[in-house]
Amino acid sequence: MKDLHSFGWYAAKLKPHLPKKAFNPVPTRLWGGLAYLLVTVGCLLTIGMLDFNPFIYIGVSLVIGACFAALGFLGHEILHGTVVRKAWLRDFLGAVAFWPLSTGPKLWRKWHNLTHHVHTQHEEHDPDAWPTLERIMRSRLLRWVYKLPLPVRAFFSFCSLSLQFSVHSLNMFVVYLKEFNPKKRRAVFFEAVLPWISWIGLLVWVGPVKWIFMFLIPLLIANLIVMAYISTNHRLNPTTEVNDPLANSLTVTVPKWVDVLHFNFSYHTEHHLFPGVSSKYYPHVKKLIKEHWPDRYHEMRFDKALLALWKTPRPYHNRELIDPSSGNVYGTLGNGLDTTKIQSKLEEKVNNTKEFMTTISEQKGKKRASKYQ
């Protein structure tokens, strides 16, 4: 792996080449959010107040789910302070945008802005980093899961994308609630619970059948869209001790119209370099990165990135990817992964997975024995 630099090191070199207006908030982004909000409300009322063929409901659910996801992308931008700067307005608008995903603004800023962005791809401190082989082998359930063949795990992993954001958000609520100032915990709790109260209230109003089309199916669709992006952001990149966005982040490429609909969420390396700059200017940031460090920058077509995720295992081992069921080792981006022909490093096949598991068991045995000494 090449010498690593912090995101601040890169930002300091590129900042003089960006226009000053790039560092100002861009409130016009809210017009897109308003459009999504109006479409969402219109679709919810259509299902709630009118009786149609269920196949029509499915089509409307797809539209609602797409709007839920897009609002989440806008909420992400709002809560980075690149749309409005006033704290109360930022949190209010962020709460509205994240309402469908039931994630509160205070929790998001703690989990995403202050932890993930500061410790990106650090195997211990990044809450979004995929676990290492050592951590996986300490769990009996995960040891069983990772005995399954890679294609089987890949299938269920991709199916789980429709749930991952909601499940992870709930887990982050449990993890970080105790870290908030006691005076703020009530507000954090309220922000997390209030959206669910509204969705449960919707269930009471329309009944379970329509609720499935108005909220459950759209939520699954939104999870799938959001996690399709998030899963490509870092999971093909290595873990890093230094928070180097050019090493630990991936920008995916999508058609221009998709970038418009999704507020340029595909520009992820650019976002980690300048989280305080509106995504409106990320194409310009990308151009500058490729001019300065073309050999360090990682970008990939979105569909190819998803295919690479399907073909590679997720546990990390020495900054590479390892398949515990076979012991095969795969490279990471910038560290031997050839996305044009994905295959394991046969000459580096790890045959000591059982030995590793034995070591973990011995460590657990010593801990248990120490309790009785």
Characteristic terms for this protein:
mainly alpha; 5 strands; 3-stranded antiparallel beta sheet; 17 helices; globular
Coarse shape: globular
**Would you list the SSEs in sequence order as H and E?**
HHHHHHHHHHHHEHHHEHEEEH
Query: N-to-C terminal Cα separation, in Å?
Result: 45 Å
- Strand order in the largest sheet: 3-4-5
Structural class call reads: mainly alpha
Structure summary, number of beta strands: 5
* Percent of residues in beta strands: under 5%
Helix content, binned percent: 55-70%
The chain-level mean pLDDT equals 90
Q: How big is the Rg?
A: 22 Å
Multimeric state: single chain
Count of individual domains: 1
Biggest sheet character: 3 strands, antiparallel
SS element count, helices: 17
Transmembrane segments: 30-49, 55-75, 188-205, 211-230
Domain Fatty acid desaturase: 57-302
Keywords: Membrane, Transmembrane, Transmembrane helix
Protein name: Fatty acid desaturase family protein
Q: How does this structure look, described?
A:
By secondary structure, the chain is mainly alpha-helical. It has one domain. Helix content is 60%, strand content 3%. A three-stranded antiparallel sheet has the order 3-4-5, with no helix packed on it. Helix 2 packs antiparallel against helix 3 (54-78) and helix 3 packs across helix 11 (208-234).
